[in-house]
Amino acid sequence: MLSLSVAVVLALWYARTFALKAQDRGIRSEENLRHFIATGKPLDSRLTMRQIIGLRFASDDEFVSLAKQAAEENLNEKQIKS
Q1: Cα–Cα dist 66/69, whole Å
Q2: H or E element, residue 40
Q3: If the chain, 82 residues long, is cut into consecutive pieces of 10 residues, what is the mean pLDDT of each piece?
Q4: What integer pLDDT is reported at residue 82 of this predicted model?
Q5: Cα 55 vs. chain centroid, distance in angstroms?
Q6: C-beta separation of 75 from 50 below 8 A
Q7: CA angle in degrees (0–180, nearest 5) for 6-12-16
Q8: Residues 79, 25, 23: CA angle, nearest 5 degrees
Q9: How many whole angstroms separate alpha carbon 79 and alpha carbon 82?
Q10: Are the C-beta atoms of residues 65 and 40 closer than 8 Å to each other?
Q11: How far is CA 36 from CA 12, 68, 78, 79, in A?
């Protein structure tokens, strides 16, 4: 019974983890495309996934400058959103 419980918990955890990783890859590619369209260059590789998620909420007018500032000053997601 214990083995079955552990197996179920692990299966649920792995299923959730894989779904979140797929979602993160989608977000990263969307924002990378958005930056490429605006500048002709990919996003800075120094940006973390949390920073890129914060950049999703930036308007097109401020997106490029905010992405550059986030990479240079290592802003966190909350700072980027505000």
Answers
A1: 5
A2: none
A3: 96 95 95 95 93 92 94 91 87
A4: 85
A5: 9
A6: no
A7: 145
A8: 85
A9: 5
A10: no
A11: 36, 13, 24, 23
Which pLDDT score, from 0 to 100, does residue 38 have? 94
Q: What angle do CA 6, 9, 1 make, to 5 degrees?
A: 35
CA–CA distance, 82 with 67 (Å, rounded to integer):
13
pTM over 0.90: no
Q: Among the residues of the chain, which ranges form H helices?
A: 2-39, 49-55, 60-73, 77-81
Structure tokens at 29: 């590619």
Q: Which residue in 82, 33, 47, 32 sits closest to 62, CA to CA?
A: 82
